[in-house]
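Continuing the series of single-chain predictions for the mutant panel. This is the parent chain; the variants come on the following pages.
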Amino acid sequence: MRRDSQRFQNGSMNITVKNIPEPIYRVMKREAKRKRRSLNSEIIQVLEAEAAEAERRRQLSNLRKELDRFAASLPPVGESAPLIRADRER
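Parent structure:
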């Protein structure tokens, strides 16, 4: 744990990204300017949004697996028409 905390400064990790394609750089720079942010702030916002989306997809996948397990645990359902008729006759 101590080793990990040495990599963070003020609760943040510093990284270097190299060889960013020019079109991506231009878009990021343009969006940062449009939103009146620094390029660094814009990149952090984009990374935060993508991380949140990745977490949402992970949770959705887990929920689907849980739903599949639940559905598999239910008894098989036969034809529903006789049940509906019986209910209507009451």
